[in-house]
């Protein structure tokens, strides 16, 4: 029973709870466990869920700290044999192979600072092509959420992610994990989501290649499978988080990671900008309640 129950949606858990006392007790334990930790024990620390606003329960989704391939639902594993200069033209010489900086830091030179995001939207980390372990300081964004957080119900924005401790500027918070979709599948899901009242979390990320005239698009859908980042709301003033693309040596697809842009106090909501409102889509967009002086009144959305 304990193997099956955690995978059920709240309404099915509630239905089972009515069948007998044992089920009722197990369902009660599971519900309080879900409410006690939004990350279901899969991050390094518990992430409490707070709702002082309405009766809405914590949403059901499969928690995954890393992105997974859609359908197959397995952790996104990158090929190990990748040339130092891959097809997209990225040079991993600094990280992969003999000259890998991570080898130095694994020998004990821990003083070497991790790459900081500064204003750069793209940062490089060690990856499958390197010989270092997950403790390497060049794998900052690969160890899961790194600050104490809480999920808080907001009266107009739904669930939101808040800091549960003071956080310094430039600190890594978490990556945006979800199902990696093909563009065809993303378009299909977008159409379905547009007709649904359900809150959805499909993000389209575009990376401009060095040539400038092409861009790599990847789609991360955290609606059904995702991590704590799926609760980060939009802010028209850019918010207090910087989203960065992280390229890891040996990985073909970059990841999206969030760093703090400024000092954040415990209790503050964490937000970032979802992008711009594309012309022609104003009427179909949802209302924005970011509450900043720069609020445009509608949430950014885009043609997929
Ligand atoms: C990635 S989810 C963020 C978490 C979401 N609030 C929830 O309840 O799960 C994106 C959705 O949150 C809501 N949202 C995000 N930012 C908002 C804002 N500034 N104003 C109103 N709704 C917002 C929208 O429904 C949006 O489609």
UniProtKB/TrEMBL annotation:
Alphabetical UniProt keywords: Chromosome, Metal-binding, Methyltransferase, S-adenosyl-L-methionine, Transferase, Zinc
Compartments where located: Chromosome
InterPro entries from the UniProt entry: H3K9_Histone-Lys_N-MTase, Post-SET_dom, SET_dom, SET_dom_sf
Domain SET positions: 147-275
SMART domains found in the cross-reference section: SET (SM00317)
GO BP term (any one): methylation
Sequence ranges assigned to domain Post-SET in this UniProt record: 284-300
GO molecular function, one term: histone methyltransferase activity
GO cellular component: chromosome
PROSITE patterns: POST_SET, SET
Protein name, per record: SET domain-containing protein
Organism: Selaginella moellendorffii
């Amino acid at each position: 029973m304990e193997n099956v129950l955690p995978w059920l949606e709240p309404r099915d858990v509630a239905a089972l709870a009515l069948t007998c006392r044992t089920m009722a007790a197990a369902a009660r334990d599971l519900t309080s466990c879900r409410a006690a930790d939004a990350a279901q024990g899969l991050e390094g620390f518990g992430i409490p869920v707070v709702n002082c606003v309405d009766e809405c329960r914590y949403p059901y989704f499969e928690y995954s700290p890393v992105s997974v391939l859609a359908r197959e639902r397995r952790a996104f594993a990158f090929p190990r044999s990748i040339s130092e200069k891959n097809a997209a033209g990225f040079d991993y010489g600094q990280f992969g192979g003999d000259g890998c900086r991570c080898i130095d830091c694994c020998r004990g030179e821990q003083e070497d600072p991790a790459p900081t995001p500064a204003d750069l939207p793209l940062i490089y980390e060690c990856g499958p092509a390197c010989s270092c372990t997950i403790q390497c300081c060049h794998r900052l964004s690969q160890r899961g959420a790194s600050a104490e957080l809480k999920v808080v119900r907001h009266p107009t924005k739904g669930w939101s992610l808040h800091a549960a401790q003071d956080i310094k500027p430039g600190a890594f918070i978490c990556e945006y994990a979800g199902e990696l979709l093909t563009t065809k599948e993303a378009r299909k899901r977008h159409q379905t989501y547009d007709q649904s009242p359900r809150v959805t979390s499909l993000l389209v990320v575009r990376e401009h290649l060095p040539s400038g005239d092409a861009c790599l698009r990847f789609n991360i859908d955290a609606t059904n499978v995702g991590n704590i980042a799926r609760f980060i709301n939009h802010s028209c003033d850019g918010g207090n988080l910087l989203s960065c693309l992280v390229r890891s040596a040996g990985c073909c697809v970059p990841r999206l990671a969030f760093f703090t842009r400024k000092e954040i106090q415990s209790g503050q909501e964490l937000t970032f900008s979802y992008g711009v409102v594309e012309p022609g889509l104003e009427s179909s967009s949802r209302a924005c309640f970011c509450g900043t002086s720069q609020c445009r009144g509608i949430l950014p959305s885009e043609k997929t």
